[in-house]
């Protein structure tokens, strides 16, 4: 039993923290959010230099074979700094699809460039009307000679606009919600028929709806076996879920620190408001939520790294996501409330943390969805 | 015991509802029900429609345009407007400045301001909160120094709702820094927003909307005749206004309309091929809010009924505010959760009305966190109940 | 609109309060609870003298045609005093079954004696395994010449031991959970084959399981139409539910008063514990729960009196019971917590109020049951 | 990072569990798992079984019988006992009086008391709380006046757990009423319960059980050699004991066993022809408790892991106590709700084991309200965290 981060993990975390301190202070972040792309090429380059992009990649692709646990402390730092870069889309989702499902050629074609920061990817899976049901895909891929032609619409594809290629899921057989019949494809950006409709999201990131009209791809675009992509999608989404759980822990940590600091410095009725017992007890409950969330984030990351049985893995990840979602809502709402009016203003970081926590609470499934999955797997 | 309105009051409610169906402009209603921003003109347009009808200031004395309605009918009217999706009435002139003038103002002040407020010719805002004085209002530090026939005002107000729309602002200022009790030495001034030295700086909120501001006063000269009540009696005026709370702080009508929208939304939203509304997990959360609202609507009538005994509302108003805002926040949260992943996009390309409505839900959830903070935070309201009603 | 009690209602409430003050102080109640029967004949007599037993009965049976609203303030007084007398069993349940379902002969045979206090009744409907499903009755009544022979087991029949007669439900057709096929019978106590197994309940009342083995009753025992008793049972149980909602309001009122008083008098760290803000805010939340519960109790009582549409009536009663159940749990748990250790002791009335509130929260259906019924009727 | 125990510790856990399966008497286990009352003999019987095995006082120094286990292994052992359904160890002698004697006691006191505590020859109870001093312990007023070689003790203790079983009681008494700070002038006395002048009066709890008492002292003569540490240093002793908290206050093992019982119960209980466990409404409440317990078991290990760094547990223990008791209370409430109407009868005629188990559920729910009150109420625990950990 050991809850310390390894030396490598601590070194990485330390360098990430230095990076965000130097290149990601609140004002810089505002400028990045306001920019056209909504992301920072310089920060992406630095993340590459620190090995953050290559860390979870396999060594044969220039990576370090890192797992979710190795990324935890870095994800926490991202959460504290409210990083809006396409890390989740590129490294945690699309690259993982290729790494876990792709051929040697596909891995070599993309993963080394992801690790060096020269290629970005996005994951075009979710569709409107699916809610959180990963099996719900209506987009179809029809045989077309040696290749396929893809038609359909994807929704809220994170950071799709900046990506060199999309990992797209589509039905090669079956009906919209069948577990079988799902396949995945690598679609280079700019492929004719791919139309992006980008927008900003509540947590100040970028995403896009994607129209796929007669998109022709070759046989080499197929990722993994036809009709069998769902388990791969579930595995990758669980991995990404574990990472945002760790990110949430960092955001919660910031929210608790900022709120505690505010309670100590804000004076009303001639005393720091932190001297009022009602607020003290609520602050304590925030800290308890934070500790419980941290424990479950560790469980989620350890499970996606080590748990071989998919049902057990999904059960653990769902348990974690339920607790994290509850903690996100509790901490976000209370920390803004305890900040009073100022907590709602754009100029206070806490209001931005509130928005990211609000999104994480629902991302990859809200508490209801994961309670249902948890019970079904128990 | 009779839980429902009298036959006469029911007829009155029907009459109000019928009039609203006819005279509430569809575009204004659409903006309200679809959470689109109301412009200054939108607000004034609705104000003037009501003014023309004679219903803009029901609580005023009849010689100034009041309707002479009972408290129950005023409540019925306000809830009917909320339920119908009418734009909110900006309270600063009609329900705050006016009652103050009626109670403490000189005849000249009444003659000068009340008719313009009634007709919506002056847009008012409220200069209370300061960076250092939120819940602890009496610690305010904006100074007003007497120089001949003027006060020279310096300082800053914050969280000033709709100041960027306003022609006038009523302010609490410290006119005597020597006073022993901080409550003393405060005066109540009416200030023309066009006076040199006033700067309004928007305070952007996290939903991206603009509704509150910082207002800076730099050697702003305010004629002494714009002071209401005696110098140093500002706190008396402020306390009077607090005691003047209305009984619709729960905003039942609005929440009933929102509840219906939520049901319509979740009847359409599909989860695993069935309406989300039929999902027991979601439905139970919705039902508990619906039941809490049913209870609060009765509680609100019970408290209103107590006024017959002539007791001024006190802790009751705080209770209505706490529970009413908790319901409003629960409804906005359920709406955001109802649309699932579609709560993330802020604005979709070429999005239709339905998309725009969905995209407005999560910003609205963010925006509504204010309801438990403004107008006396729910913590302050609990303090008030503990002291006033429970004697703790 | 008028939330005042009528003059009659106030007079009744006042006399009930005088009665409980004189005859039902906490010590007297303890003695009654400890007695063999667990009830007080003297108190029953006084309730009869005050007209409390006859109030809800029809005038042709010597009653006053009172409704639930007329009983509200009296039920509140019962709740404050924690009355353990068989009022619910006799007046609110069994007598209502006879009054609403019985023939003129049956009404004349029983109701006048109920009103004068000379007869007590009990309602033998619930069965083990039914949970809160009123349609779940396995007890059977088979045709036997002109009459019936009843076989089965009933569970938690309130105050069955002291009753002169039982109103028993049994299946004359259909399967255990069918809505049709249920019939009701008046079974005089001591009828051969009726075996009572009495016990104490958590809230210090008395109840019994009842074994019915070849119980023969005549045709005149049938209450209402054969196979059609369920709507009658639902109507009567809704009436009783509305009354315990009012009783809960009284018990909550006592709990709030006692807790507030304790907060003001109990000193720790040199100050009344009521001066600590965390406890103040929790006390406020108790009062808010109490006000909301009172509103819903009024709604329930008004609905059972005036709502003609059974579906609307049931929906209102379920809404009320959900809120009352939540308030019972909240107020019971918090008032004991705020009393500290003393709140758990037998010698403090609050611990008895805790138990009654705990039972009311589940009696005639817990929050889950009524949430489900509320949604189904919406 | 490694969330699980080391291979050695896992082997140790298996060894402990195996031993428990073999040596925990079925009748005692049955009483624990079916919520039947444990007699004095039951408690002592289990105590002696552990004493014979040498596992009764793991934390003691080895010369007095300690096992030399690491904090992790002590935790593993305690949780394994709880999970197995072993009777609780009465802490007053083993985990409270003994550590005090080891730290402050004279050799004579150690020689006299420790072996008897180890072998379960003396049953100890704790004389802390008084009618006027619960959370505010330092305000206690039981007096001890020095008369020659004795203290004459007068006053009352209350909420004294298992005093009716006890041979000895350790008490905080006020030996100097002149002291300036109320924390001073308190002494720590060991008192033989057979001493004339001691009256034990049961304090019945609402579940009908007898576990706490009032203890009255009427001119009780206590030999001076029974004072631990110097006169007036009683508060130092009490504080040491507080800092001496163990890491199993969350009682994870016990709650895990209870959770399994709840699942078994609700798999059997039918609702509309299906197991209650499959009812989404009930299941979600159960799942949230299960998940909170999963989280707390990891949080507990994390805090335990911090001890490697040598930091003494402080606010962590309070957090474990708050969340652990909230889980215990949630489990008892779910059990009561699970059996529906069958929660009402206290004891059914000729009821079998299953009926007796069901009938014990609602009294147990009532009884477990104590967990958020005793051993430092959860309010006090929140105060401790606010001050110690958050600096508020």
Layout of helices and strands, plus pairs?
The complex is a heterotetramer, with 2 copies of chain A (378 residues) and 2 copies of chain B (392 residues).
Chain A: H1 7-23, H2 26-34, H3 41-49, H4 68-81, H5 87-101, H6 104-116, E1 121-124, E2 140-144, E3 147-158, E4 165-171, E5 182-188, E6 194-200, E7 206-217, E8 222-223, H7 229-265, E9 267-268, E10 271-272, H8 277-306, H9 310-339, H10 349-362, H11 367-376
Parallel strand pairs in A: 1-4
Antiparallel strand pairs in A: 2-3, 3-7, 4-5, 5-8, 6-7, 9-10
Chain B: H1 7-23, H2 26-33, H3 40-53, H4 71-84, H5 91-104, H6 107-119, E1 124-127, E2 143-147, E3 150-161, E4 168-174, E5 186-192, E6 198-203, E7 212-223, E8 227-228, H7 234-243, H8 252-268, E9 270-271, E10 274-275, H9 280-306, H10 315-338, H11 353-359, H12 361-367, H13 378-389
Parallel strand pairs in B: 1-4
Antiparallel strand pairs in B: 2-3, 3-7, 4-5, 5-8, 6-7, 9-10
Helix pairs in contact in B: 1-4, 4-8, 5-6, 8-9, 8-10, 9-10, 10-12, 10-13
Give a nutshell description of this structure:
The complex is a heterotetramer, with two copies of chain A (378 residues) and two copies of chain B (392 residues). Chain A has 378 residues and is an alpha+beta fold. Chain A contains eleven helices and ten strands.
What does this structure look like?
The complex is a heterotetramer, with two copies of chain A (378 residues) and two copies of chain B (392 residues). Chain A is built from eleven helices and ten strands. Chain A has helices spanning 7-23, 26-34, 41-49, 68-81, 87-101, 104-116, 229-265, 277-306, 310-339, 349-362, 367-376; strands at 121-124, 140-144, 147-158, 165-171, 182-188, 194-200, 206-217, 222-223, 267-268, 271-272. Chain A has a four-stranded mixed sheet. A four-stranded antiparallel sheet of chain A has the order 2-3-7-6, with no helix packed on it. Chain B is an alpha+beta fold. Chain B contains 13 helices and ten strands. In chain B, a hairpin with an 8-residue loop joins strand 6 and strand 7. In chain B, helix 10 (315-338) packs antiparallel against helix 12 (361-367) and helix 10 (315-338) packs antiparallel against helix 13 (378-389). The radius of gyration of chain B is 22 Å and the shape is globular. The model of chain B has no long low-confidence stretch (mean pLDDT 94). Chains A and B meet through strand 6, strand 9, helix 9, helix 10 and helix 11 of A and strand 9, helix 10 and helix 12 of B.
């Amino acid at each position: 039993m050991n809850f310390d981060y390894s030396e490598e993990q601590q070194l990485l975390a330390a360098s990430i923290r230095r990076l965000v301190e130097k290149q990601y202070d609140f004002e810089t972040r505002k400028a990045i959010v306001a920019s056209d792309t909504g992301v920072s090429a310089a920060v992406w380059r630095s993340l590459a230099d620190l090995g953050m992009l290559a860390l979870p990649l396999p060594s044969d692709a220039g990576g370090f074979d890192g797992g979710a646990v190795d990324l935890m402390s870095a994800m926490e730092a991202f959460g504290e700094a409210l990083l809006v870069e396409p890390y989740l889309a590129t490294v945690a989702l699309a690259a993982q699809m290729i790494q876990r499902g792709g051929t040697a050629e596909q891995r070599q074609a993309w993963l080394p460039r992801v690790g060096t920061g020269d290629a970005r990817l996005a994951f075009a899976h979710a569709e409107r009307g699916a809610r959180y049901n990963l099996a719900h895909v209506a987009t179809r891929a029809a045989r077309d000679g040696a290749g396929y032609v893809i038609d359909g619409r994807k929704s809220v594809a994170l950071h799709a606009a900046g990506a060199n290629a999309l990992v797209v899921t589509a039905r090669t057989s079956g009906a919209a919600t069948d577990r079988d019949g799902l396949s995945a494809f690598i679609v280079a950006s700019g492929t004719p028929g791919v139309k992006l409709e980008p927008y900003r999201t509540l947590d100040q990131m970028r995403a896009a709806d994607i129209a796929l009209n007669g998109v022709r791809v070759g046989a080499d675009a197929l990722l993994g076996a036809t009709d069998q992509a769902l388990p791969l999608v579930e595995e990758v989404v669980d991995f990404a879920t574990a990472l945002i759980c760790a990110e949430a822990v960092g955001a919660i940590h910031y929210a608790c620190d900022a709120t505690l600091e505010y309670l100590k410095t804000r004076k009303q009725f001639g005393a720091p408001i932190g001297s009022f017992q009602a607020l003290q007890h609520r602050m304590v409950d925030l800290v308890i939520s934070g500790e419980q969330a941290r424990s479950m984030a560790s469980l989620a990351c350890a499970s996606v790294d080590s748990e071989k049985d998919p049902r057990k893995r999904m059960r653990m990840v769902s348990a974690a996501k339920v607790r994290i979602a509850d903690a996100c809502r509790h901490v976000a709402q209370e920390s803004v409330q305890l900040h009073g009016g100022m907590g709602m203003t754009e100029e206070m970081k806490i209001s931005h943390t509130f928005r990211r926590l609000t999104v994480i609470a629902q991302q990859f499934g809200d508490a209801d969805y994961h309670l249902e999955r948890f019970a079904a797997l128990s | 015991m009779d839980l429902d309105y009298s036959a006469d009051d029911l007829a009155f409610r029907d009459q109000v509802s019928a009039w609203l169906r006819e005279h509430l402009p569809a575009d204004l209603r659409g903006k309200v029900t679809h959470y689109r921003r109301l412009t200054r003109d939108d607000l004034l347009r609705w104000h003037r429609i009501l003014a023309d009808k004679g219903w803009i200031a029901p609580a005023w004395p009849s010689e100034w345009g009041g309707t002479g309605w009972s408290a129950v009918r005023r409540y019925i009217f306000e809830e009917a407007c909320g339920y119908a999706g009418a734009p909110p009435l900006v309270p600063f002139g009609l329900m705050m400045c006016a009652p103050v003038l009626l109670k403490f103002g000189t005849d000249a002040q009444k003659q000068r301001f009340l008719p313009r407020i009634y007709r919506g010719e002056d847009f008012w805002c409220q200069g209370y909160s300061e960076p250092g004085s939120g819940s602890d209002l009496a610690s305010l530090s904006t100074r007003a120094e007497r120089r001949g026939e003027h006060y020279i005002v310096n300082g800053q107000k914050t969280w000033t709702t709709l100041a960027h729309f306003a022609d006038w602002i009523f302010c609490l200022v410290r006119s005597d820094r020597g006073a022993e009790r901080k409550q003393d030495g405060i005066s109540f001034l009416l200030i023309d927003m066009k006076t040199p030295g006033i700067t309004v700086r928007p305070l952007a909120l996290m939903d991206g909307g603009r509704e509150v501001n910082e207002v800076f006063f730099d050697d702003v000269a305010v004629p002494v005749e714009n002071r209401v009540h005696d110098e140093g009696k500002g706190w008396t005026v402020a306390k009077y206004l607090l005691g003047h709370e209305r009984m619709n702080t729960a905003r039942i009508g609005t929440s009933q309309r929102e509840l219906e929208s939520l049901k319509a939304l979740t009847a359409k939203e599909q989860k695993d091929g069935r309406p989300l509304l039929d999902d027991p997990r979601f439905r139970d959360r919705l039902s508990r809010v619906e039941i809490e609202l049913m209870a609060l609507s009765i509680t609100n009538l019970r408290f209103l009924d107590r006024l017959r005994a002539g007791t001024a509302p006190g802790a009751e108003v705080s209770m209505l505010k706490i529970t009413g805002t908790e319901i409003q926040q629960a409804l906005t949260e359920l709406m955001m959760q109802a649309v699932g992943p579609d709560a993330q996009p802020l604005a979709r390309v070429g999005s239709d009305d339905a998309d725009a409505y969905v995209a407005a839900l999560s910003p609205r959830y963010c925006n509504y966190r204010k309801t438990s903070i403004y107008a006396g935070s729910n913590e302050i309201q609990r303090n008030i109940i503990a002291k006033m009603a429970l004697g703790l």
